[in-house]
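4.2 Preliminary Data

To establish feasibility before requesting continued support, the project team ran the inverse folding procedure on a target of 521 residues. The structure was first converted into the token representation described in Section 3, and no sequence information of any kind was made available to the design step. The complete token record follows.
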């Protein structure tokens, strides 16, 4: 035990010494770290002070540069302002010089104006005195002339006016004749070229139709079956179709009549089917009449749509299209009205293209111009007025309405499409083979033409020639001059245009001739 005491003591001493050594080493290291941190902090502060000084100097330099630039910019603006002020002062001086010169010129003009006014006043006074003298002399001369001629002032004035009217009338007739001939030749040449081109492009063949309501029967025995017992078949037929059957002595045919062409066609088709079927009795008549009416209505509607498609007119009301189809059963002097309307539409469209108007609108006007004929047997009035009212009711354009209203009257220049339709209507109606005229209507028209010409006292004789396309008027040579003959021709043309309705045109030729006869013995 005693042996281990020194060993423990040594160990304790060593441990104390080691702890002291560690303590002193830690204090030394801590002191070193503090010293290094202090040194680092001082170095950092020194570097920061250096950077702050540099930044301050750079900021001061930048501020000085900005101040310098600002000063230079202000100096530049001041320099420009001084230059503008100098330029403005120079312009003001120039304007002031101009105003001074203008003021001087105005003063000179005012002085000249005053001189002119003074001279004008002097001239007015001089002319007033001269006029007074002239009036006095004129009065004296007028009194002497009245005394010499033996006429009063009013009588002399009237004689002078009569002589002047005669002279001016002859001269006006000569001028009118000259210019009318030139204008007529130019207009006829242009119109002829346009019409020939349009008709050449639409050179469709056409055969005049003859519409009858005669129905052939296989034998005269069929007439009794058509009449029926005590006429019951005829009564049923009239009630079902609205048509009358005329059974007379005509061999192999009976006649169907009705004021409506559509109903007449329904009656004809019904009768033909009854004859082909052979069962002619009231029930069968009513049944076939209903079928025929439905087929005719379908045919009318289909025909109207085909016409609209062929003419290329769209947007029409279905009722108008139906009325167009009804025109297939209407004829005018044996010319089918629907084909006539389509032809007018094509010709009007071609003319419109040539003169720069709307082709589609012209076709629309031409196609619908005779639409009133589809219902003129149901409504009282002329077909132009009926057609115009119908188109107006279906909200057609005003050009279309007026074309239907005025294509037979004198067209207004405000509606050029009416003129086109009137020209196309005349082309379609007057070409050879299109229409047939009755002898009564032909003779009546000839008489009307000659009667209008014979109303003039200067006319000796008048003759309607070329089927009413020309009227030749012979005037007394001792009652007229060349100029007054031209005026008579113009008056007759105007009266024919206003009072006579005719397709195409009528040429008026006034003939004045002087004959001198001598006999040698």
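Position-by-position output of the design step:
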């Amino acid at each position: 035990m005693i042996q281990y005491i020194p060993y423990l003591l040594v160990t304790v001493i060593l441990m104390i010494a080691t702890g002291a050594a560690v303590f002193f080493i830690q204090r030394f290291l801590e002191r070193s770290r503090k010293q290094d941190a202090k040194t680092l902090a001082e170095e950092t502060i020194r570097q920061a002070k250096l950077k702050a000084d540099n930044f301050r100097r750079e900021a001061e330099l930048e501020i000085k540069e900005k101040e310098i630039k600002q000063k230079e910019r202000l100096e530049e603006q001041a320099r420009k302002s001084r230059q503008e002020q100098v330029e403005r002062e120079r312009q003001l001086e120039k304007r002031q010089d101009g105003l001074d010169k203008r003021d001087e010129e105005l003063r000179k003009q005012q002085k000249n104006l005053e001189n002119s006014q003074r001279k004008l006043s002097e001239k007015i006074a001089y002319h007033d005195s001269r006029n007074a003298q002239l009036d006095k002399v004129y009065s004296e001369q007028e009194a002497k002339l009245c005394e010499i001629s033996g006429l009063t002032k009013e009588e002399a004035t009237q004689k002078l006016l009569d002589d002047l009217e005669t002279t001016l009338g002859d001269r006006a007739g000569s001028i009118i004749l000259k210019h009318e001939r030139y204008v007529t030749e130019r207009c006829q040449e242009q119109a002829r070229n346009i019409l020939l081109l349009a008709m050449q492009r639409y050179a469709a063949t056409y055969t005049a139709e003859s519409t009858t309501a005669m129905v052939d029967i296989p034998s005269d025995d069929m007439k009794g079956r058509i009449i029926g017992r005590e006429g019951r078949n005829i009564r049923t037929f009239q009630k079902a179709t609205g048509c009358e059957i005329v059974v007379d002595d005509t061999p192999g045919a009976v006649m169907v009549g009705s004021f409506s062409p559509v109903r007449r066609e329904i009656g004809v088709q019904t009768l033909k089917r009854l004859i082909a079927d052979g069962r002619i009795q009231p029930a069968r008549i009513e049944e076939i009449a209903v079928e025929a009416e439905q087929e005719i209505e379908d045919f009318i509607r289909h025909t109207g749509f085909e016409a609209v498609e062929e003419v290329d007119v769209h947007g029409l009301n279905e009722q108008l299209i139906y009325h167009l189809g009804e025109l297939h059963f209407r004829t005018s002097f044996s010319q089918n009205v629907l084909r006539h309307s389509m032809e007018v539409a094509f010709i009007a469209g071609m003319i419109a293209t040539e003169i720069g108007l709307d082709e589609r609108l012209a076709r629309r006007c031409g196609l619908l111009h005779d639409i009133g004929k589809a219902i003129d047997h149901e409504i009282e009035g002329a077909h132009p007025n009926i057609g115009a009212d119908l188109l107006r009711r279906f909200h057609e354009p005003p050009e279309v309405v007026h074309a239907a209203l005025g294509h037979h009257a004198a067209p207004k220049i405000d509606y050029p499409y009416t003129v086109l339709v009137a020209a196309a209507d005349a082309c379609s109606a007057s070409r050879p083979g299109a229409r047939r005229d009755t002898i009564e209507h032909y003779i009546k028209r000839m008489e009307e033409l000659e009667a209008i010409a014979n109303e003039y006292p200067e006319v000796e004789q008048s003759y309607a020639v070329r089927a009413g396309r020309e009227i030749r008027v012979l005037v007394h040579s001792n009652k007229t001059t060349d100029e007054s003959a031209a005026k008579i021709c113009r008056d007759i043309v105007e009266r024919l245009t206003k009072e006579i309705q005719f397709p195409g045109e009528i040429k008026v030729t006034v003939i004045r001739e002087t004959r001198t006869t001598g006999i040698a013995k």
